[in-house]
């Protein structure tokens, strides 16, 4: 049982600043220090537990304080329901003697105890989020988020003269914006849309001469159920005029450095920068985790004259190659790999203690090839080689295996990645367009249609658009994309060409943007950082839900209030919509 | 015609901070000073106009700079389409000689010129908002907004230890929340709702031990067409634990003082504070404009023995009274009042130069009554008296006339209110409940059901709820309510009583909040400031649209992008809704 508890609430705090200003209390529990001995203090907080019927251990957001209760204070003794051993407290040196006590509220039996070691199911945490947030980890996460965001604002506003501008979230549906929530208006058939990002507005602000814009922008994405995604999320949204890629990258490096939590090792800048091509070649992925090596290698040479049928076939096709990764000490996961996830397109080679190979390929490889393979891969006894043959598509497969093997190794106790390391990386020079999956003769934007081409590729936009690289940059942290942006097209004619001729989209849907570009748009570019993801990596949280105060469940539900919920037909009338109930489901409505 | 324009864009700015850091430019136009003479500078901006075929007047957000163009630079001379006289520039003392020029973009003929003196219609401004925002007034408004908000954050976070927490905007519909937009989900019949404020979340955060919460919160209100309202708006949302009214009021006074624009006269604190009762008695309104007097007076005594029928009737009814306001120098609007808006329930008395009265009541008033009237009202020749008789309901009528007369007087050139004055005022001790308009035997919350009663009235909650005053406080500035808040009910049993017994609402709809209060909720209270309104008063804007980057029109439309817009039936399928077209309107759909 928890009791709300405070000492001497009849007078006000004399603090004029800090966490106790304007409050009933004079101090927080966690800030009591030997220097306060002899002072009369007022504390407000929760009874964490009672100890020996004599002490109340009181908790507030800042920590614990042990308070000696005079023996005539009977009421509190009733509250003793458990006594547990006390972990060392930062204020353990001093003792607080209660002079008066006021019980401000009482507490029902809680569904779980507010103790950090008490494990709760995810759904229970979500249902009673207001209790879950009392945990020291969640308090840390939310308070760190606030501090980090404050530092970001100081850096952008005060150091670099950015203007914080709020943009609308009730907007017009983007052409093809399948992931946008719709919001019915009171005009029949007309809907607002909740935008996935303020992309159009930030560019319009550049045309408007705002010059340096930023916003902590709430964004919306209706993706149904995707793991660790939220229907609403927050991005640090930035746009600048008269700037190039290097300018934006420098700004962001400074931003990260400035706002980085003081308790972590400082971040050094500039961040390494690699091209998309190099990332794919070395890591098989466009957001490489560079905390460990295990890079992809082209070992085609080794099998130049091979008799092994599928390798020969692979090498004979256009662009064919044989790729490998070497997993140091991979022997420990040799069997696990086969058990769990081993794809049949990949051959596994174990380098035994005596240097011999254990593999299905072994029998078909001449000794010289084996020797060459070990040399090329710099493989030593105990290592594991994963080999894949095909075109360049075999790289993403190995890239995925690389990450899975790192996890398996760590699960087996082999240190692969330093959990306290933060590896930032820029990935640049992405292709501007990619073939559409459903119709490879058509092109679609690799990121979005507003990205400008690299200056040296700009001439190809009108001749060989599939060859054009864009001025897009991704910021990657420990193998997660935490941000992305680009220098934008700022000439209306280029934008029109991209929309109409290359992407075959109806440019009239973006006529306001085209008109704006045609009104003297400055060269401009920007970036958006995924704040939730960034924070979850900093605090080492398994999910972005752990850095959001009131997140939705996997299925997009608020388990506390039970949103989304049914709305009566009557309430929908003013929006001129009605629900199409699937056959047999109508009964659900009344719930 | 406007040309984008810069000098020497081939090298980067060497500034590491400020508005030119990381940019192509080295200086902004407005910051060039005699001390820069001899320096090579890089400017980026718009060609405002050309002068004598020799000078380019260049504009960026910071101001203008005059640049001398060498005679061989022919291209620019083509751009001369108008020459107008130059107003004095802050940098007028120095001259910039162009060494090189790069034209970054060209510009079509604009729908209006970017000159402050060019008057544009509201709809044209909205349609080309990205041009409208280039005006110096809109630049000032948006930049002031950013700075003011930054100072507010510094005050709350850095000075008082508040935590900036983001709360969801996809939430559950509030019982009776007729003004909430609905957002269909992918589950048939289930809708999210866009909340009007984070009220529930801020209280839950107090239960969660966040202790001091704030947020610049985006809020939503679907009110159809109301003048100078926006479907989405921003409030400075604040909540604190272990605090009383005085604590919150002190916090807000400090907040306003800290964030107040330096170019304005400083704000003095504490703000005056009056009760709701006194406000209604003196001003006939709960948000009085205290920049001028013209207070309401009870002149019942004067007509104690009157023969005038309707006054006698008024005084004979329970609570009957006769109220008046005296308008100094009101003679100048005597005829206008009758022309424009004069309500027949009000009698007008003009005090003529000779002290005689001109009024329909004149004939029926004995000389002694006239004398008493002039004395009570302290009316002098040239003043106007407005008299209304009835119950207390006649006060709001006079309160409204008081404001209308002030406007009329100002329109006639009589100084009533100092346009540079900012009068802050707290209004407190509101009734907690009011009789429902449609059923006066039922009570409804005067503000919202979470407001705590005044401690001295708390015992009445269970006996005479209509007599209970609440711990609600409104912040009023120059007669506009710019904020409101309260100390909340923090005991579940009291909250349940208010919801169930007094308001006859189904408490199960707020079961999560009741459960939360029952989990040891601390005493807490908070406030929300309407940021848009507050800013519009500070900058003297006629509408909140002038402090919002991309506002909606009166009818809730985005005239630039044409939102809300039609969405195909197909796109609505995944949300299981269809449009109910009003008869004969279906053809509209394809637009």
TrEMBL record, chains A, B:
SUPFAM superfamilies: Class II aaRS and biotin synthetases, GAD domain-like, Nucleic acid-binding proteins. One of its GO terms (molecular function) is ATP binding. Coiled coil: none annotated. One of its GO terms (biological process) is aspartyl-tRNA aminoacylation. Keywords: Aminoacyl-tRNA synthetase, ATP-binding, Ligase, Nucleotide-binding, Protein biosynthesis. The keyword Aminoacyl-tRNA synthetase applies. The keyword tRNA-binding does not apply. InterPro entries: Aa-tRNA-synt_II, aa-tRNA-synth_II, aa-tRNA-synth_II/BPL/LPL, Asp-tRNA-ligase_1, Asp-tRNA-ligase_1_N, Asp/Asn-tRNA-synth_IIb, AspRS_core, GAD-like_sf. Belongs to the class-II aminoacyl-tRNA synthetase family. Type 1 subfamily. HAMAP family: Asp_tRNA_synth_type1. NCBIfam families: aspS_bact, PRK00476.1. This is Aspartyl-tRNA synthetase 2, mitochondrial. It comes from Salmo trutta. The lineage of its organism: Eukaryota, Metazoa, Chordata, Craniata, Vertebrata. The gene is DARS2.
